[in-house]
């Protein structure tokens, strides 16, 4: 269904998205909405945001347990960050289409 909707609006298919955020509508024609989602994913994909998430997840540990926790959490954070970067790029392109 999403594939047909995007094709009908001459938008690229974003098959790298595991799921959309609550309220996120990739078929929006609103410049304001596209800008909001672009800003949202810009912040999520930033390096500082990724470091804050890492610190929250391993904050209760110290020494070897902290290092082990970082090793365990880091692959997921990297994958999330890459997904957020793709979504940010999508919204930047969508914003350009609407402007």
Features:
99 residues, mainly alpha, 4 helices, disordered N terminus
**Distance between termini?**
26 Å
Q: Determine the mean pLDDT.
A: 82
Unreliable stretches: 1-7, 9-16
User: What is the oligomer described by this structure?
Assistant: single chain
Structural class: mainly alpha
User: Helicity, in percent?
Assistant: over 70%
Order of helices and strands: HHHH
Kindly describe this structure.
- It is a single chain.
- The two termini are 26 Å apart.
- The chain has helices at 2-8, 31-45, 47-58, 63-98.
- The protein is elongated and about 50 Å long.
- It is 71% helix and 0% strand.
- The protein has one domain (29-98).
- With 99 residues, the chain is mostly helical.
- The model is unreliable at 1-7 and 9-16 (pLDDT under 50).
- The protein has 4 helices and no strands.
Topology (elements, then pairings):
Blueprint: H1 2-8, H2 31-45, H3 47-58, H4 63-98
